[in-house]
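[job 4417] fold queue: 2 targets
>>> target A
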Amino acid sequence: MRRVSLCLLLLGSASVLAPAMAETVGKTVLPEPAPNWFISQGRDESHLWNAADGEMLGLISHTGFTTATVTLPSRKEAYLVDSYYSRAVTGTRSDVLTVLDLSTLATKAEIELPPKAAALRIRQHIALLGDERHVVVFNMTPAMSVSIVDVVDRRFVGEISTAGCAIIMPVESRGFLMLCGDGTLQLIRLDESGQEAERLRSKPFFDVEKDAVFDRVVYDGAGWILISQEGLVRQVGVDGKRIVIGDAWSMLNEEDKAAGSKTEQWRPGGEQPFTLHRGTRLLYSLMHKGKVDTPDADGTELWVFDTDRRKRVARLVLPVETKGILASQEPTPHLYLRDKDNKLHIYDGHRLRLLRTIEKPGAVGGLLQTLTPND
């Protein structure tokens, strides 16, 4: 007992005599963004990763109501919506579009918005238009609308009603398509100031009751790829005064259909089920065998499709059920997969070979994003 007390006394004396080490707080400055960087979003923060070595580059702080982050590497800025309440989760609400410096991940500006933004982690609830000036934010309370923000002049432009239509898919320079509940697409074009200049509507092309289209859409470089819960794939875009909707093709071949049953068949699903590598036109999809109305079921396999030939070219049984997938836009893409245990797995997108796993990525929950504006 005396020996232990003596040791404690000596340790205490040493700590008193030892000179205090001053802590210094540094400011991180990131290098030029690389195409293999990606973001995993959690509830209150997002992490920026380097796929080459699996190392975290930085942390983006935000509120739990953030939908997604829009990045613009050419301006070294990122944009996201934050919602604040005067009493944490109740009281007076205020929404802002936060402008981040991609070099430091620090806030550069806040632009006040109407307190209506949809607090759902869906990538296309916020988008930067092709003019790189106007950010469009989807609102859901008390009615569907979008807020238009000029991120060059740092000002809120106005609100546009979009009753029954959601999902923002930029086209051309100042236009965007929206997916509507009556089975149509809506096109809204803005003028140079960000005000509505034109609105068009397509004919119905799907039945929301029989085979709804996922609200997880994929940018293909000129237009967008829409996929239904039964695995029908369509490419959509704009040609002058026309909204162009391509013919549908199925993810399932005759063998896949024969392997199913009256109650279960192969279906796409997950929180983030699709991604496209635009250079090779390869579409990656998480698939599971399930009943009707299981679009949120985790993927047990990864299927790869050549969208030009409309044909499956590869198939991988996943070692663990997977919630989300995203491809980088490098010549040889990386694939980022988030599994049911929140681990991140990085694959070679051509060989479908696992390169590394991030066991504890920190952010729980999580939308995956690259630093290209529409991914």
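>>> target B
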Amino acid sequence: MADNVLAIVGRAIIPKKVRPDLRLYLLKAGYVDVPFAMFGVLFFANSLLAYLVYIGYFYASIKEAAYGVFTSGFVSFIAFATMMFLLLFSTSVVLYFIWNIRIYNRTKEMEFLLPDYLTLVSTNLKGGMSFENALWNAIKPEFGILANEVGLVSKRVMTGNQVTEALVEFSMKYDSPTLRRTVQLIIGEIESGGRIVETIDRIIRDMKKTEMLKREMAASTVTFMIFIGSLVVFICPVLFALSLQLFTITSGFLGTLAGQATSGSTGMSVSAPKLDQGDFRLFSVLAISIISIFSSAIISIIEKGNVRGGVKYMPMFLITALTIYFLATAVFGSLFGGIAIGG
């Protein structure tokens, strides 16, 4: 019963014009049906969070302002609606990011499994099977995502669709030039009545050569990736920690000179720095975080040719760099603490 209510709410907040495109998009991420119940849960969770934020921050301010009844209601509505919109927008962005990464991983896994699957298809064709039977009999559990997709193709063919149409629909579901070119070549041989076995074998050889070239290119750039990784994970945090200690020592000296110039009769004009240690520490943490995120993206572009493959590096780079920064800050603080105090 609760699932039905959540599904109804989730379906209500998704516009009808968006639902077909959303279903096609989620099919790429592995969802057979649109998870309307999950959207309902997120809607209620965001509503509760917006209510708590409103009670905690806005209600008291609106009450103290002593507005009229109409004005108070209008301001409360605008504040709650704005928070609700921001929360729903942020949730949508996070979901899109997660689904996009999932689609990317599924596509790469499919491209990795495709040569082995086509090898089995070629073997079945050489054994005298028809093309359709060769496709269906090549489905094995170890092919995972690819096996599921070919299974969907077989169901469409059984319900009256042409095998070429089903294959084209399958290839268009994923943003994979390799998959699309493979399907186009196979369909071209089917329609022209050519030797499809030789075409499949040639496709398999080309895909394996391409994969080998990609690995060689990635191996040739290992030096650059190691340099960027060591720069971000170790050198950058240590330099920021050292700069923090230098700033602390300099601030101590300038503060002491400012106090002596104020109490003495000299004509010196010395002022203590307006930036404190906490601000510099916050700046260091933000700078290291930004550098870590963009460096992981650069390494991903060098290694895989795109940014999405570097998402897995971002938490590792970020956590490691910040850990080394705080450890280096503690070590330098114990080494130079006497100088700072003496200043």
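[job 4417] complete. Note on B: The first helix runs from residue 2 to 13.
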